[in-house]
Amino acid sequence: MDTTTSIDIVTISSDERTESPKQLKNSSDVFENEKRIMEKYLKNSDVIQFNVGGEIMYTSRASLLHAANSTMTKMLLNQSEQKVSMDKDGNVFLDFNPKLFRHLLEQLRLFEENEYIIFYPPSTPVLTVPFNLMLRKLGLKSAPISDDDIFTFNVGDEIIATKRKTINRISNSKLSKLLLMNKPSDMDQNGRPFLDYDAKLFRHLLSQIQTGQTKNFEAPSIESKTAFNAMLQDLGLISK
């Protein structure tokens, strides 16, 4: 009885063991083609990532194209002829206050196609000047100054808002000068001017100014007259 085990021997040709130069070239071409497709996809991606003052932000290509000819858009879409700064991860780096830039982005996202593009500053007076400076550097237009511009103040830990035209009625007061100051000495954590007065008394003062009164302000009550007049004196206003 033959107990010999039959073994099939498979012979592998040299062509099968190694790819031919032609095959290698084809593989390389496929890789390069896939690479070009990926680069094109990344370049034309609808979502743009960038770094503003150390904070990563995102916006859409469509939003940026609302201001297509601006320095900002050319930088973020890598179309700028100027040298653009990059962070360690390859993101375009813009050296601005992230809070100001977010305020800009919030407006940019709301524009319609072919709409005239202008940007309004934050309602906090101290941020108006740096915001407009940022716009200039980015090739964007700021809205013209309007009597209806709204400003907010922190009065005794209560946020109070009023219009520019109200404050301009008392142009020589401490209050009106706050609108022109880059860095008021007293600010809250959100950059609003902080006024250490009774909020109720301050609102009472504003209500009189809103009606056109510029002097001879009256306290809301006899009991509050001393505190009200002290506030007026500090603001450079005249009591009755």
Q: Which class best fits the helix and strand makeup?
A: alpha/beta
Pattern of helices and strands: HHEEHHEHHEEHHEHH
Termini separation: 132 Å
Helix % is 25-40%
Radius of gyration: 32 Å
The tally of strands reads 6
Average pLDDT, rounded to a whole number, is 82
Q: Biggest sheet, open or closed, and with what strands and sense?
A: 3 strands, mixed
Q: What sort of overall outline do the alpha carbons produce when their principal axes are compared? A: elongated
Arrangement of strands in the largest sheet:
2-1-3
Q: Which percent band covers the strand fraction?
A: 5-15%
Could you characterize what this model shows?
The radius of gyration is 32 Å and the shape is elongated. It has 240 residues and is an alpha/beta fold. The strands form two sheets. Strands 2-1-3 form a three-stranded mixed sheet. Strands 5-4-6 form a three-stranded mixed sheet. 20% of the residues are buried. The termini are far apart. It has helices spanning 14-17, 21-43, 61-64, 71-76, 98-108, 125-137, 164-168, 174-178, 199-210, 225-235, and strands spanning 47-52, 55-60, 92-94, 150-155, 158-163, 194-195.
How would you describe this structure in keywords?
single chain; 240 residues; alpha/beta; three-stranded mixed β-sheet; 6 strands; 12% strand; elongated; disordered N terminus
